[in-house]
Amino acid sequence: MRPVAGVSLQRKLLLWLLLPQLVLWLSGGFLAWRIALQNGEKGIDQTLTQSVRALARQIKPIGDGLLVDFPKAAQDILEQDPTDRITYMVSSPPGRFLLGNAQLPPPPVLDIRLGEPLLYHARLDERAVRVALLEVDYGSEPARQRLRVQVAQSLTVRERIAQELLEQMVLPMGLMGLALSALVYAGVLRGLQPLKRLEAQIERAGQRRPVEGDPLPPIELTSAPQEVHSLASTINRLLDAVARGQRKEKRFLNDAAHQLRTPLAGLIAQTELALQESHEPQVRERLQKVLAGAQRSAHLVHQLLQLARSESHVPMEALDLPTLARDVAREWARRAVAHGMDLGYEGEETALVCGNALLLREALNNLIDNALHYAGQGATVTVRVERDTESPRTVLLLVEDDGPGVAPPHLAEMFGRFWRGSDQPGGCGLGLSIVEEVALRHEGRTVAEPVRPHGLRVGLRLPLMPQA
């Protein structure tokens, strides 16, 4: 199961920095709206309080009656805005309409102090209004009476003031939010630059193949934060441990292969001598089995040595790939004829690559050996060097046969270590793994594709030299 990539650190930082900023910006806008409403309401309350006191002063008691001195000019001022006019009502006793331009709702409380204005919210004609109420008494004892004066104004003015104030604040707040977001984004990018440099150094270290025996290059970050220094130090220790493990593995592989090669060569020689001197069928059959096992072991040791050599440092030089391919094909021609196969070369006359002749020769030997081993008697095996149709700066070194081939699902597994395409005796499953190592060492890659109607084409895709 492949691991699922998580959200990047940059996105997480931006999310946790910009999301609270957005929440605070929205909260600030809501608070500004509420403050604007409160300030607008305070202004309305002051206006209504002055209006209700002024109106109450215009009502003068005369004996046991009332004289309302409310000039026409004052009434016009109160009613000059049809959409948001001030509504008033005078009642005595409280609640009994005497005069006014509307029937205003009563207050929500019953305990009302004389001479002190009371402000409350109400609804009039399906509209929200703010009402100021003032009660005074008039007349003499025992016929003293109470007079209620009410003045109301719609809250439309308050909402309009709050909306205008909010509109005036939105643009500056938005510009400040964008500027802050840009600063946060730039700060996150700058803060993550040490991690980017660390990533680049690790990538370069992974692409570079160090000389055998040399440690992997350490990661250096001189101007990074302390946390990145700790991470780099930990990675350096890990790289050093990996390098030590690789050196031990290669040293063991070389030592083991060298130690096994000499006794195996002696075993093969002694078995061949015993076969020449023995004439008993049963003994010869057993000696043939011993000889086949020793030869397989010797071949395995040889492949292990080549694998260790391909993973170590080797010098590169300019060489003509078609010339090398023709030479190797000629060397295998006698064996191909002995197996009843046709082996030949087709392709380019010249193609310069930067590589190691020993490794490329060993890779081609493995490809031809596999083709002769698995294609079957009577097959045709062709060594090719041709320009790559996918990229004009690469060249293909291929071995093609018209044998049974490999099933398409197994093409991707062919270059794994100890993978074998059939149960035929011989081989150890390391040949194509060596081919892949050689391709990687030459900054190329392997190729495996079926041939129609049957057969297999296997090889390397290598970069041409720039002057080629």
From TrEMBL:
The coiled-coil regions, if any, are none
Q: What's the protein here called? A: histidine kinase
Q: Which GO terms describe its molecular function?
A: kinase activity
Catalytic activity, reaction form: ATP + protein L-histidine = ADP + protein N-phospho-L-histidine
* EC main group: transferase
What's the EC number here? 2.7.13.3
Q: Where in the cell is it found?
A: Membrane
- Which residue range or ranges hold the HAMP domain? 189-247
Keyword annotations from UniProtKB, A to Z: Kinase, Membrane, Phosphoprotein, Transferase, Transmembrane, Transmembrane helix, Two-component regulatory system
Q: Does the keyword Magnesium apply?
A: no
**Residues in Histidine kinase domain copies:** 255-466
